């Protein structure tokens, strides 16, 4: 079954309401650094390409990219995350401030580095190597308490809560349970971009958004057809004890599994440049759509169009309200 399309009028009416909607984003913030160069020969020292440096670019990654997507779509973000006492943390704060995102909810932990992914890529966007600077141990003690306190304050006025879990230490059982403690029909929707090891922690969430591989791992099912996706979606909802699941399936689009509606959402046909960060765009669009009263199906259809736009851009990127509206 394919979900019925969203009309242009309804889509644009929802998108127009995104402006200044308060969204709480809790998760693992990162800085993505791209070192771009040209490759013309192989090193005589080892069988690896020699990259001649051309340029360097910084991008917001992880939960910071989620927050950036919310802001680009017009939302107002409260971002809660963890940074180190290092130059990377300073650069991350600068990038967030430049995007108009408050850094008040960033907690500093001098005992760990700010998570940074350094990608060496060619001018044709081919990745040569990646270096990760990180400490992925769960936060604890006073650091964890401060994160919970920041999240609790921001939650009081948020219209939706978005958890961006990259398994880098911020999303612990205690932090997620603190958000879920009051989750319910009278509370803002909770959207989780999940990781399989934490699946049992997400009980009470409105929506979880695993990708194809995460859904297969979580359910021990192969997903090759819509029927497979339907069965995996139902199993995922049961395992995570959440209201709905949206499985992103790359070129096969998405599968929505909800108590009231199930169905596939075909991918929007566009040239794919880079899928990095597409899940962040999906999560941000879902949060804003649900916050302004969209149904689960309407939110998923909006998110599918947003993903179709962002995969045409290089690296972690954002979609604006105008771009999303024009897609309809």
Give the termini separation: 22 Å
**CATH fold name:** UDP-N-acetylmuramoyl-L-alanine:D-glutamate ligase
Please, what is the average pLDDT? 92
What's the order of the H and E elements?
HEEEHEHEEEHEHEEHHEEEHHH
- Weakly predicted, low-confidence segments: none
Query: How is the biggest beta sheet arranged?
Result: 9 strands, mixed
What is the strand tally? Answer: 13
Rg over CA atoms: 19 Å
- What's the domain count? 1
Name the CATH class.
Alpha Beta
Helix percentage: 25-40%
The helix-and-strand class reads: alpha/beta
What is the 3D shape? globular
The CATH superfamily is identified as Ribokinase
Spatially, the strands of the biggest sheet line up as 5-4-1-8-9-10-11-12-13
Beta-sheet strand percentage? Answer: 25-35%
Number of helices, where a helix is a run of at least 4 consecutive DSSP H or I residues: 10
Write the layout of secondary structure elements.
Blueprint lengths: L7 H9 L5 E6 L1 E14 L6 E14 H10 L3 E8 L3 H12 L7 E3 L7 E7 L4 E7 L7 H15 L4 E5 L8 H8 L9 E4 L13 E2 L3 H8 L6 H15 L3 E5 L5 E5 L3 E4 L12 H14 L4 H15 L10 H6 L2
Parallel strand pairs: 1-4, 1-8, 2-6, 4-5, 8-9, 9-10, 10-11
Antiparallel strand pairs: 2-3, 6-7, 11-12, 12-13
Helix pairs in contact: 2-8, 4-5, 6-7, 8-9
Give me a quick take on this structure.
The protein is α/β, with parallel strands linked by helices and 328 residues long. The protein contains 10 helices and 13 strands.
Mind explaining what this structure looks like?
There is one protein chain. The chain is of the alpha/beta class and 328 residues long. It has a single domain, classed as Ribokinase (UDP-N-acetylmuramoyl-L-alanine:D-glutamate ligase, 3-Layer(aba) Sandwich), CATH 3.40.1190.20. Helices cover 34% and strands 26% of the residues. The protein is built from ten helices and 13 strands. The chain has helices spanning 8-16, 63-72, 87-98, 141-155, 173-180, 212-219, 226-240, 278-291, 296-310, 321-326; strands spanning 22-27, 29-42, 49-62, 76-83, 106-108, 116-122, 127-133, 160-164, 190-193, 207-208, 244-248, 254-258, 262-265. The protein has a nine-stranded mixed β-sheet, with helices on both faces. It has a four-stranded mixed β-sheet with strand order 3-2-6-7. Helix 2 packs across helix 8, helix 4 packs parallel to helix 5 and helix 8 (278-291) runs antiparallel to helix 9 (296-310). The longest helix is centred in the middle third of the chain and has 15 residues, at 141-155.
């Amino acid at each position: 079954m394919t979900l019925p399309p969203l009309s242009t009028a309804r889509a644009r009416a929802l998108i127009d309401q995104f402006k200044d909607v308060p969204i709480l984003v809790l998760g693992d913030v990162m800085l993505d650094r791209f070192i771009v160069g040209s490759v013309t020969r192989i090193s005589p020292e080892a069988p690896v390409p020699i990259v001649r440096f051309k340029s360097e670019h910084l991008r917001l990654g992880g939960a910071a990219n989620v927050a950036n997507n919310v802001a680009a779509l017009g939302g107002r973000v409260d971002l809660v995350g963890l940074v180190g006492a290092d130059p990377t943390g300073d650069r991350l704060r600068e990038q967030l401030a430049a995007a108009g995102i408050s850094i008040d909810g960033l907690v500093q932990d001098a005992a760990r580095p700010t998570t940074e992914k350094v990608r060496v890529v060619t001018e044709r966007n081919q990745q040569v190597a990646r270096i990760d600077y990180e400490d992925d141990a769960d936060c604890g003690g006073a650091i964890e308490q401060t994160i919970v306190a920041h999240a609790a304050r921001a939650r009081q006025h948020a219209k939706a809560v978005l958890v961006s879990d990259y398994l880098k230490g911020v999303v612990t059982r205690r932090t997620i349970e603190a958000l879920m403690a009051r989750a319910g029909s009278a509370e803002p929707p909770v959207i989780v971009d999940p990781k399989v090891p934490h699946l049992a922690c997400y009980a009470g969430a409105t929506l979880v958004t695993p990708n194809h591989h995460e859904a297969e791992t979580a359910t021990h099912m192969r997903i090759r057809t819509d029927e497979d996706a339907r069965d995996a979606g139902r199993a995922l909802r049961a395992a995570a004890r959440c209201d709905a699941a949206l499985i992103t399936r790359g070129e096969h689009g998405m599968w929505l599994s909800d108590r009231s509606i199930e169905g596939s959402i075909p991918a929007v046909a566009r040239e794919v440049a880079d899928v990095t960060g597409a899940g962040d765009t999906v999560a941000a669009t879902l949060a804003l759509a649900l916050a302004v009263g969209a149904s689960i199906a309407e939110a998923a259809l909006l998110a599918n169009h947003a993903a179709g736009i962002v995969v045409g851009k290089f690296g972690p990127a954002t979609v604006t309200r105008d771009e999303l509206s024009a897609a309809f």
